[in-house]
């Protein structure tokens, strides 16, 4: 039976890898607009690389700006960069900034504005919303809502973080212990996210990403060995394991947040919003997985029967799939140290 599982997993993984080989979705575009002097703006535009070519998206400023579109980009090794200065006939507040071509992609664009008469503003454009209106006033509540959305999107697009949470769901049967483990995970990544975002802790991103993959491999091994020799460490003390690895995952979140940036006037509000968004994303993911599991058990009775009667087979199959994906990420990220 174990041989059959290995064969099935070997056939399934190559089909899954094209969609999950990257731990995160395609990198977003990034637009930074900084007002250097009244009505004079410096723009930094970073768009993703697609097969060694810049993604077919651009920036369109209001018509009253001298240089409304970016110049020819240059490749920095990971993305395509444009950096230019433009003068506008009046301030941007109340004007529209659009990203032509975004509607034909599956990525998003993060916009950050640093205007002289307003606090820093961050926003996210998606294929269904390619136009951004520069606000005339910015409240702390709007900052909170913006970063809640960014946090939710990041966790739902972070396949490695979700795979870790999924492994916890599989490993921990007791719902209260599972709740405690997820809570400990949230608390831990909130701590390191805040410390790293405030510049109090700095760890290079590549080792962090590699250890995050290793944490998933660890849970996959725990799943495979469950029931074989008594309770596993992660079953006896799930909150300790979750908290320990959550500290590392928080450093991974901080890497994403550093690309977005934090508004200087509302740093703590933005951090709170991002953490709330991450937690909302986790809750949504857990709810969907549990609902799908319950639906499968009701719609396909043999699924529930096999799971109950052959628990070790299900554990082994799950561990091969989860561990196989995480191991691929681990090798890829360690290899990236020397790339």
Report what the structure shows:
This protein has 339 residues and is an alpha+beta fold. 55% of the residues lie in helices and 15% in strands. It has two domains: 29-138, no CATH class; 156-338, no CATH class. It is built from ten helices and nine strands. The strands form two sheets. Strands 1, 2, 3, 4, 5, 7 and 8 form a seven-stranded mixed β-sheet that branches. The chain has a two-stranded antiparallel ribbon with strand order 6-9. Helix 4 (175-197) packs parallel to helix 7. The protein is elongated.
Query: What is the residue-averaged pLDDT?
Result: 81
N-C termini distance: 40 Å
What does the largest sheet look like? 7 strands, mixed
Radius of gyration: 23 Å
What's the β-strand tally? 9
Helix content: 55-70%
Overall geometry comes to elongated
Q: What is the H-and-E element order? A: HEEEEEEEEEHHHHHHHHH
What are the key terms here?
two-stranded antiparallel ribbon; seven-stranded mixed β-sheet; 2 domains; alpha+beta; single chain; 339 residues
Concise account of the structure shown:
The chain is of the alpha+beta class and about 350 residues long. About 55% of the residues lie in helices and about 15% in strands. Strands 1, 2, 3, 4, 5, 7 and 8 form a 7-stranded mixed beta sheet that branches. Strands 6-9 form a two-stranded antiparallel ribbon.
């Amino acid at each position: 039976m174990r041989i059959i599982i290995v064969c099935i997993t070997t056939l399934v993984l190559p089909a899954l890898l094209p969609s999950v080989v990257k731990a995160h979705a395609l990198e977003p575009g990034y637009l930074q607009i900084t007002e250097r002097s009244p009505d004079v703006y410096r723009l930094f535009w970073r768009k993703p690389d697609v097969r060694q070519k810049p993604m077919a998206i651009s920036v369109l400023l209001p018509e009253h700006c001298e240089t409304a579109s970016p110049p020819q980009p240059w490749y920095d090794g990971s993305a395509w960069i444009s950096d230019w200065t433009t003068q506008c006939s009046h301030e941007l507040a109340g004007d529209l900034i659009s990203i032509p071509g975004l509607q034909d992609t599956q990525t998003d664009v993060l916009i950050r504005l640093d205007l002289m008469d307003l606090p820093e503003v961050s926003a996210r454009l998606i294929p269904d919303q390619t136009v951004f209106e520069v606000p005339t006033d910015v409240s702390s509540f709007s900052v909170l809502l913006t970063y809640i959305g960014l946090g939710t999107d990041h966790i739902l697009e972070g396949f490695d973080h979700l795979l870790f949470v999924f492994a916890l769901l599989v490993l921990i049967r007791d719902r209260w212990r599972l709740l405690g483990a997820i809570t400990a995970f949230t608390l831990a990544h909130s701590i390191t996210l805040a410390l790293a975002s405030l510049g109090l802790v700095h760890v290079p991103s590549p080792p962090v990403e590699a250890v995050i993959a290793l944490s998933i491999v660890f849970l996959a091994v725990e799943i495979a060995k469950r029931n074989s020799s008594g309770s596993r460490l992660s079953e006896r003390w799930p909150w300790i394991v979750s908290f320990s690895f959550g500290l590392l995952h928080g450093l991974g979140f901080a890497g994403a947040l550093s690309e977005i940036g934090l508004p200087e006037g509302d740093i703590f509000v933005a951090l709170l919003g991002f953490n709330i968004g991450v937690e909302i994303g986790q809750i949504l993911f857990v709810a969907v997985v549990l609902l799908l599991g319950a639906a499968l058990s009701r719609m396909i009775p043999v699924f529930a029967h096999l799971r109950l009667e052959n628990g070790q087979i299900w554990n082994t199959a799950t561990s091969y799939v989860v561990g196989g994906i995480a191991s691929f990420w681990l090798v890829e990220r360690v290899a990236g140290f020397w790339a």
